Fold these 2 entries.
Entry 1:
Amino acid sequence: MKKRILVTGGTGFIGSETVIALIENGYEPVIVDNLCNSKEAVVGRIETITGVRPIFHPVDCCDKAAFRKVFEEEKDLYGVIHFAGLKAVGESVSKPIEYYSNNLVSTLNLLDLMREFDVRNIIFSSSATVYGVPERVPLKETDPVQSATNPYGETKVMIERILEDTHKAWKDLNVVLLRYFNPIGAHPSGLLGEDPNGIPNNLLPYVSQVAIGKLKFLSVYGDDYPTPDGTGIRDYIHVCDLAEGHVAAIRKLADNPGVVVYNLGTGKGTSVLEIVHAFEEANGVKIPYQIEARRAGDVAENYANCDKAFEELGWKARRNVLDACKDAYRFQKMNPNGIQ
Ligand code: NAD
Ligand code: WQD
């Protein structure tokens, strides 16, 4: 029998790509998403790509009664991948109550239902943001988790702690904390990708919208960082590699690992200007940009040491930023107004 995996936030950017990877690797995903930041059309696109229409429940994880019905209906769940959450750093500063409430209540409801229905495996979407301002790079899983500078990041720190404490009291619960670095790119079909509302906050969606002429130019936030070209350095990971990392994490659950944590990145840093040039090279387009002041809260350099994921999960990123830029542009051209 196929292992059944509940995927909260499964119509979102990373969740939808992971649902595809699950189907392709012989799992049966069950999606729960309230569509606050994604479209139901994603379910049909997953079907077009894989030939399988995943089960979809349009449910808010904060609505415990509705969420319980999903658990009652969907028997024999092997585990949960918990993507559901609000994720915009800047918005979280102006809407702290919404962010703490959505991200924490959804997780607490989920854990309580997992206990009630004896579902013993959870993989959580954490973030490099839990390392705060890094003292050194590359970041290792053993580096300290620090209080974040914004409510979004703080929810990740808090949820990691909640999951660790729950394991202490419920030893049969396995917890895999996956700390993502900067996910970019799109499905190579061009059918699925990042579809932010309004003006994008993140670099790649912004560059993609400049490339199709929807936005005039890119603002490069600072060229006076202590990096080779002065612009900020990040670890950009293709979303398809990230999705495969989740499949590797599910396989790890068979060892009953308790609480384990893995960085999912490429291990390689890329500057803002290198991304601009990679996008131009990959797609034969020009990306006009202007250098502007640093963005508040940004660090100079942030990239991962991913040796642990390779040694213990047998996973590493296979795609590079050129692949990601090609895929992101294809998605943007095919969906100039997002997924409808
Ligand atoms: P996304 O917004 O595309 O996906 C999140 C999904 O969760 C959306 O489809 C949204 O509708 C859904 N959702 C939100 N609250 C919900 C609720 N209460 N009940 C049900 N569904 C709900 O974001 P993403 O980029 O795919 O991120 C997925 C996860 O990974 C998030 O937890 C995010 O914090 C984390 N993460 C993302 C990044 C990144 O840069 N994209 C980096 C590190 C960690
Ligand atoms: C990348 C680089 C910017 C936009 C965020 C979250 C982090 C994680 C991933 C969830 C930086 C520069 C950007 C622009 C620019 N998400 N930039 N012009 O800030 O590394 O990480 O997403 O967990 O928590 O903070 O990603 O894509 O916003 O920025 O110059 O218009 O691009 O200064 O150097 P960031 P980003």
Entry 2:
Amino acid sequence: MDVTRAGDAPTTPGPADWFTGDVLIDAAAVPGEGSRAAAAIVHFAPGARTAWHTHPHGQTILVTEGIGRCQRRGGPVTEIQTGDRVFFAPGEDHWHGAAPDRRMAHLAVHQVDDAGQAVVWGAHVSDDEYGA
Ligand code: MN
């Protein structure tokens, strides 16, 4: 058993290489000691979003606040809101973020691969792709 105190796990900003706009990340599960489970609570300011990316073992997001958008490569931009759950298949190229004029928060759940990676990052989502 290992207790991580809130005060020892600071909120971190989403790195500009991987996100557009203001994003705040709180770890919810960190892999280790035989566990591949990883999870985070992510807050997106209006207009903020991830870059295009894939997850080696897929990912589930559960929207916990607000209204957002997501898209898989080749599919339509899809609105999501509080209570909606989205599964992205392993290797499926996609992005997720807030609506243009509403914040959005989600719980993201995924697994790391043998190399400890949970995400493979690509290019930023352009304004045209986002549809702002
Ligand atoms: Mn994702």
